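Fig. S4 source data, part A: sequence.
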Amino acid sequence: MNKENLKTIVLWWLGTFIALILIIFNTIFYQMLKYSFYNKIKNSLVLVSNNVKDNFTPPSINKVVTIPPRLDYPISPVMISVFGAKNMHIIAKSVTFMDINLGNYIKTNQEFLIAHNKKYGKIAIHITKIIAPVKGYIVVATPVYRVDLKLQDIFIKMIILNPILLILLLLGTNMILDRVLNPIREITKAANEISVGDLDRIIPIPSQNDEIKELVLSFNSMVIRLRNGIDMIHRFNSDVSHELRTPLTVLKGEMELALRKDRDKEYYKNVLKSSLKEIDYMVDMVEEMLMFSKIDSEVEQKENINLDELLLKVVSKLSFKAKYKNLKIEFEKTEPIEIKSNPFLINAIFINIIDNAIKYSKESGVIKISLYKDDGNIIFEVMDTGIGIKKEDLKYLTDRFYRSDISRNRDIKGFGLGLSIVQKALDTIGGKIKFDSILGKGTIVTIKIKNNKKGQKNE
């Protein structure tokens, strides 16, 4: 299939449209010009006719008299005849009268007409009916070849100039299209050159603040997002490989050691228990990674949610973990709140924040939970009496697979994905997270979500 060129298509249709406009315009202009010229001739004939009427003196007997020429007539040559009404005979005629039977045109009952004569070509004729000084008609005529020659000259010039004008317009349009399409060509070239391994191509931003600049900015922004996304995937793959390497190495080492020689039943039992523990660790990590990837598909799925009811369900679900560590969960401040949002994402936020508080709290500690509205926002706050976090580690907490040195304890189950899931969920629904922590004393996590008042319960 032949590739269609956008510029060629635009030039073709624009050229056709301009040519059509020029034809219509020139036709109207030519006809208006022709009407104007003929109207001037008509007015001149009327002037001559009125002059004859005012100054004509009929002969005393029935004979033809000659009307003397006037040098100041606006038209030349002019032919004048005065006909009697009874016999349509000529009473008077001008010295410039040509051999044209003007009497034939009186029968047309027209005041002004353009007629064709074999001898003199096209002539303009004006007929005036008079009562005095004689009863009859004054017929004034003049050849219009000069007007026709002038119109013909104008027509020829239009035929010559219009194609030149069309070509100049198309050349100007071609220059404008090149200027408009060059950035698009750059985008096309960059898009063809971009690959997963090379996302460093950025198109120079035009100086004009127009739609092309907006297109270039959008394209560059897309490339940057793709680059960041690829970088995130590479980091994610690297982090996953790193996290899986340890349990797989442990599994491989224990199994190789167990197969080197015969062992007793208890030894094999302990190897299986250790292997099962590592497998559970990997299964939990895979589930969290699946949750992390699922967030992207949950953007548009919104419904009315009773946050206080959902929070109670999450706490009830995690209560067995709290009992295992003899932790006490207290609701410090809660309010009935309804919001239109994604239940999966809200549930993921509640679960991961409370689960983290349970994981890192000390035995027999207290976890305090608050849920309330404040200044147009919904506040979800969890305070624990756990191991705390160093101040310099706070800014890294939402990075994937990040775990501070103090939390890198295999007895504390976790992969550093929980807070990353929370951050991604908040980015999706529109929210923020804040950490306040004192090392060795505990941490306060504050979630702030913009309050959607539609569907909110009355307090």
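Fig. S4 source data, part B ends here. The longest helix spans residues 6-55.
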